[in-house]
């Protein structure tokens, strides 16, 4: 299984390489190091959210409320910044992460304690979060001139050649690679989704593990919410509308199995980069907007088809045998 | 108990007296009701300001600024019914629904009340005329002119629109393209679509700057797009090289104008709109005929000509720049 995963990530790397070659043929400046750094920076929010989503999907759940969580947290911190422009940015970051985690906990509690299917829970909270933004603001926007300069500066401040936004994504990739591979909680995520019954017998509380998965996803979404509104310097109801689907797509392309239990941080990151490169390349290669959507869609379907081929048969046959044996 | 009854009767009498008082006072002056989508919206407060300006200019006109507390057609129907009961001379309405208000507005017209709609229209049967803030042709020309005004030597411009299927935006872009030959030296090099998402619009603006190094202006006829393009130009350090313009709201654009990324942009002026609506309501109530082809004066705004559907366009969108942004950013 590990070899299969490794080969899948290599496959994705090759696909990304091929994609960049094709783009470079039409627009050579795209692969200039400075432009690649820009692309990575632009994809950083997607990378962050994809890591959170991967953890949720590993536990056989799905979090459709990430983009709404991002928008709500982004609006809340923007309003705090407008009301108290002198609030230290470190506190704002902490508040955003904490508030996002709180919203994630709501999802987690409903899934854990009331055993409602995650897709229903997060579909509901997605709408509620967007509705809350409207209640908070009555549809008004928070604009760049209302935000303090310090508030807007964080994601674009350049440290060691890269903006802080990129560094946060890199830090998250490293941290979560360690968490997923080296901690009990990280292994519990795989166990809870890979085989919930076996996990229960092994002493893992599956519901609680799912709760923590949603909490982590929520915290990341909250942090990304602050980074998003400060980067684009505007907060309104429809911020990142429909972005949850891009996040799920990044996970799926990255080889995370929707059935749970299979996936890696590196895979999710590569999936996000694949979509990020397409999103950044399409504007410069001058393709009709209708084709842009078709190309993004085709990339997702090809990846999912590959995924299904790679994952389907072994899992099913083993389950059938186990069923007959008992 | 008795005492309380007495006070309430007294209060009632007082109220009635004051009502009679106002009616008696208003008898000789014309009463024009400016009905808005909902009270407490900056845009409509500004329109009411324009209406008062028109009333002062006309003399002997009383403006009743009213509307429901939320943007519903039901709320507006109640407001209209109470205005009919008060016997106002004219109603100028920005409708929450084009069809739902028709029956009550018809009732008003049967009672001899002049009814016009402005900003957001009512179906033809429910009003004598409709005043649009502007027209497709005027908007298309304005967005191109905004860019051309700051490019004396000509150069490349690009359009950043909402979605590729947005009806309004496509009509404006077509209108802009048709007047392109009037602006010598201005080349429209690309039209891209940001889908009214800030991240996609930002990326498209970055793409425009990368693929067209000589770009002089980005025209975004959408509020999300113009802000995202302004931010992208600011982040790229190209303020002064690339002018971001198009349609936006003053409250949202103030930062861009201050930083210089946007030299000017346009949107309808609510003060002018309230002013013109009042002028038209006054003229029609005084006997001006509202029929296709008729030309009606709108005071300082010139005059408007009615088309086949008895609709008219007020003017070019109003241009906002550093000289007036501070006045308008608190309005809408």
What does this 3D model show about the protein?
- The complex is a heterodimer of chains A (326) and B (332).
- With 326 residues, chain A is an all-alpha fold.
- Chain A has one domain (2-26, 35-325): Orthogonal Bundle (ABC transporter involved in vitamin B12 uptake, BtuC).
- Chain A contains 13 helices and two strands; from the N terminus they run H-H-H-H-H-H-E-E-H-H-H-H-H-H-H.
- Chain A has helices at 2-26, 33-58, 66-83, 89-113, 118-137, 149-153, 164-182, 184-194, 196-201, 206-232, 243-253, 265-285, 289-325, and strands at 158-159, 162-163.
- In chain A, strands 1-2 form a two-stranded antiparallel ribbon.
- The two termini of chain A are 25 Å apart.
- The longest helix of chain B has 25 residues, at 2-26.
- In chain B, strand 11 (295-297) and strand 12 (303-305) form a beta hairpin.
- Chain B folds into two domains: 2-134 and 270-316, 3-Layer(aba) Sandwich (Rossmann fold); 136-267, Response regulator (Rossmann fold).
- With 332 residues, chain B is α/β, with parallel strands linked by helices.
- In chain B, strands 2-1-3-4-5-13 form a six-stranded parallel beta sheet, with helices on both faces.
- Chain A binds chain B through residues 27, 29, 35, 38, 42, 45, 141, 143-146, 156, 228, 232-234, 238-243, 279-280, 282-284, 286, 289-290, and chain B through 163-164, 190, 192-193, 196-200, 202-204, 206-208, 210-211, 227-228, 230-231, 235, 251-256, 258.
């Amino acid at each position: 299984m590990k070899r299969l995963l490794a080969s899948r990530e290599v496959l994705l790397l090759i696909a990304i390489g091929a994609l960049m070659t094709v783009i470079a043929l039409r627009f050579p400046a795209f692969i200039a190091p400075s432009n690649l750094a820009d692309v990575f920076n632009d994809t950083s929010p997607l990378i962050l959210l994809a890591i959170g989503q991967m953890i949720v999907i590993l536990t056989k759940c799905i979090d459709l409320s990430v983009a709404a969580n991002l928008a709500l947290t982004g609006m809340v911190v923007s309003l705090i910044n407008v009301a108290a422009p002198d609030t230290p940015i470190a506190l704002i970051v902490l508040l955003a992460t904490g508030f996002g985690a709180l919203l994630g906990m709501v999802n987690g509690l409903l899934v854990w304690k009331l055993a409602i299917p995650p897709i229903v829970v997060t579909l509901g909270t997605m709408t509620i979060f967007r509705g809350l933004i409207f209640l908070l603001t009555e549809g008004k926007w928070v604009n760049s001139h209302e935000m303090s300069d310090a508030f807007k500066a964080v994601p674009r401040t350049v440290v060691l050649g890269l903006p802080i936004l990129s560094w946060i994504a890199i830090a998250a990739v490293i941290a979560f690679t360690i968490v997923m591979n080296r901690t009990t909680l990280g292994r519990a995520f795989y166990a809870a989704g890979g085989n919930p019954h076996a996990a229960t017998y092994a002493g893992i509380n599956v519901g609680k593990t799912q709760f923590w998965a949603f909490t982590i996803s929520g915290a990341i979404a909250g942090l990304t919410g602050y980074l998003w509104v400060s980067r684009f310097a505007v907060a309104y109801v429809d911020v990142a509308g429909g972005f949850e689907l891009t996040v799920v797509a990044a996970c799926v392309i990255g080889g995370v199995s929707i059935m749970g239990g299979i996936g890696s941080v590196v895979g999710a990151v590569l999936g996000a980069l694949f979509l990020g490169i397409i999103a950044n390349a399409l504007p410069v290669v001058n393709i009709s907007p209708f084709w842009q959507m078709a190309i993004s869609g085709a990339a997702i379907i090809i990846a999912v088809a590959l995924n299904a081929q790679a994952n389907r048969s072994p899992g099913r046959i083993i389950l059938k045998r186990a069923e007959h044996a008992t | 108990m008795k005492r309380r009854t007495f006070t309430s009767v007294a209060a009632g009498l007082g109220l009635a007296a004051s009502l009679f008082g106002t009616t008696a006072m208003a008898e000789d002056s014309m009463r024009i009701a400016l009905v808005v989508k909902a009270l407490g919206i900056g845009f409509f407060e500004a329109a009411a300001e324009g209406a008062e300006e028109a009333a002062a200019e006309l003399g002997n006109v009383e403006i009743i600024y009213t509307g429901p507390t939320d943007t519903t057609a039901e709320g507006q129907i109640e407001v209209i019914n109470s205005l009919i009961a008060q016997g106002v001379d004219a109603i100028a309405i920005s409708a929450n629904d084009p069809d739902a208000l028709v029956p009550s507005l018809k009732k008003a017209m049967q009672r001899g009340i002049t009814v016009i709609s402005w900003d957001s229209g009512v179906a033809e049967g429910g009003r004598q005329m409709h005043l649009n803030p502007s027209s497709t042709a005027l908007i298309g020309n304005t967005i191109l002119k905004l860019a051309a005004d700051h490019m004396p030597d000509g150069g490349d411009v690009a359009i950043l629109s909402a979605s590729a299927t947005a009806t309004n935006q496509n009509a404006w872009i077509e209108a802009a393209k048709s007047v392109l030959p009037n602006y010598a030296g201005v080349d429209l090099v690309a039209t891209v679509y940001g889908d009214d998402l800030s991240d996609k619009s930002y990326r498209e603006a970055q793409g425009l700057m990368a693929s067209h190094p000589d770009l002089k202006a980005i025209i975004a006829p959408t509020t999300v797009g113009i802000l995202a393009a302004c931010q992208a130009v600011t982040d790229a350090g190209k303020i002064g090289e690339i002018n971001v313009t198009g349609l936006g709201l003053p409250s949202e654009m103030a930062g861009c104008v201050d930083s210089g990324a946007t030299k000017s942009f346009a949107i309808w002026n609510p003060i002018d709109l309230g002013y013109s609506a009042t002028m038209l309501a006054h003229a029609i109530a005084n006997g001006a005929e509202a029929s296709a082809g008729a030309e009606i004066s709108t005071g300082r705004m010139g005059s408007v000509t009615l088309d086949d559907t008895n609709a008219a366009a007020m003017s070019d969108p109003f241009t906002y720049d550093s000289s007036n942004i501070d006045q308008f950013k608190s309005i809408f």
